[in-house]
Amino acid sequence: MKFNYKVPGQLDTKEPYVWLASWFGCGFINPAPGTWGSLGALPFGIILYMVCGAYGLAVAAFIITLVGLWSADKFDKAMDGHDSKMIVIDEVAGQWIALIPAALNPILILFAFILFRFFDILKPWPISFIDKKVPGALGVMGDDILAGLFAAICVVGLSIVL
Question: Which residue of 21, 86, 110, 136 could cross-link 27, Cys pair, CB 3.0 to 4.6 Å?
Fold first, then answer.
């Protein structure tokens, strides 16, 4: 498998929104930039949980969602499009939400990652509704927030079983 890392010429790489929206360049890795964004979110999420606990990670997910709304909007305007695959800050927010109930358990962290990717890729209803019907940065961020919530609920169920 050959990996491709390329920043489009119309993006000003001196602008912070480029690096935030792409989660420090994870969104420029092909194939599967969303998966790379989710993987790039894991170490930060785990460290946040270790330092601040579940509530701290939840607050960080809320803050990164606000940052994502701003940076995704700026990125889309710079690219003259909607929901560019290079925007992966939405995956960061969703992945962090999915990690909250994993409680630093390595098996649950793995399931949080897999389940988040599952819901983000397949987009069952109502995730698909948000993805298709909600415009702008709210739509970019919203479907991943909901995918993260679905994954978190599943992780809670798994934590009871395991």
Answer: 86
Tokens of 41: 């979110």
* DSSP sequence for 53-98: HHHHHHHHHHHHHHHHHHHHHHHHHHHTSSS-TT--HHHHHHHHHH
Closest C-alpha among 157, 63, 136, 124 to residue 147: 124
Which residue, among 100, 90, 102, has the nearest Cα to 40 in the 3D structure? 90
Domain residue spans of the chain? 15-161
CA atoms of 145 and 116, how far apart (whole Å) = 10
* Token pair in block for residue 85: 């695959």
* Strand pairing class (4-5; 29-30): antiparallel
* Cβ atoms of residues 8 and 87 within 8 Å: no
The whole-model pTM stands at 0.94
pLDDT, mean of each 10-residue run, the chain (162 residues): 71 93 95 96 98 98 98 92 89 98 97 98 97 94 98 97 88
Q: DSSP letters of 28-45?
A: GEES-HHHHHHHHHHHHH
Q: List Cβ neighbours of 72 (8 Å cut-off, separation of 6 or more).
A: 21, 83, 87, 89, 90, 137, 140, 141
